[in-house]
């Protein structure tokens, strides 16, 4: 998160992206990078967004889900020891309920930063500058998505140009996955290929290169056959210097 001009709109979009389906989506923002000043501004905005979405007690909200299984519940609950719980933190193992939670002052070495969370926990890591944020991203496996927030398009473009990821979203979170006009996919550890509409067809289509010649004009092939000589080399060099228009057909 870099210099947002409207913290409220940042908090709502980030909160929605993180807590949608109780955080159990592969494209949820896994952590927030921001300055210590921005962290303090984000906290009340995130708290307000969570209350707006799920009420004062998210446990009673029909719009907030539960963790898919007991094993995953225990794994996610163990991540609450990272940083300090600034918002939420309540759990109920019987219901597999984990409240929408924001962790502040999280360190890169904390458990929440060692794996994909896949749950309703949002860690905030403090960085001193945009350069430090970009170095932080580039020091880790390339992510499926990067979310950059700023009213200055130059800042978003800087993140785009200086990082590598499956996709980048400027000033929003989950929405691009709903657009069939945009390719969706990862890079490196975050996945291979790209999907949506024609992109899916291209991913699963093999363009086979084929060459089919006739059996005549064998004299033209003499240059490629041994024994080799300086005369053949000279003829080959002269041949490749001539610009010729070839014919190619994809079968």
From TrEMBL:
GO terms for cellular component: cytoplasm. The keyword Oxidoreductase applies. Keywords: Oxidoreductase. Coiled coil: none annotated. It comes from the Eukaryota. The keyword Oxidoreductase applies. GO terms for molecular function: 3-chloroallyl aldehyde dehydrogenase activity; aldehyde dehydrogenase (NAD+) activity. Residues 1-206 form the Aldehyde dehydrogenase domain. InterPro entries: Ald_DH/histidinol_DH, Ald_DH_C, Ald_DH_CS_CYS, Ald_DH_N, Aldehyde_DH_dom, Aldehyde_DH_NAD(P). PROSITE patterns: ALDEHYDE_DEHYDR_CYS (PS00070). One of its GO terms (biological process) is aldehyde metabolic process. Belongs to the aldehyde dehydrogenase family. This is Aldehyde dehydrogenase family 3 member B1.
